[in-house]
Specification:
By secondary structure, this protein is mainly α. It has helices at about 1-25, 50-75. It starts with a helix and ends with a helix.
Length: about 80
Amino acid sequence: MSTFIATFGFMLLLFGLMSVGYLVKKKSISGSCGGLAGVGIDKECDCPEPCDKRKAKMAKEAAEAERRERLVQHRII
């Protein structure tokens, strides 16, 4: 039980130090490698064509963007 309490206390100390670092620098924790773009991968999967679910989502987003554009064009004020 003492090992658990010591580990829990250590983790609380680490979280506390990270939060103080955030409050001082106002910069969130980030990785050093730059993510997938750093290794030349543009998207998470290397599929040549998006799946049906992704296509539907993209079509919905395009329709929403078109609707917003029409609203802006036909705005009275």
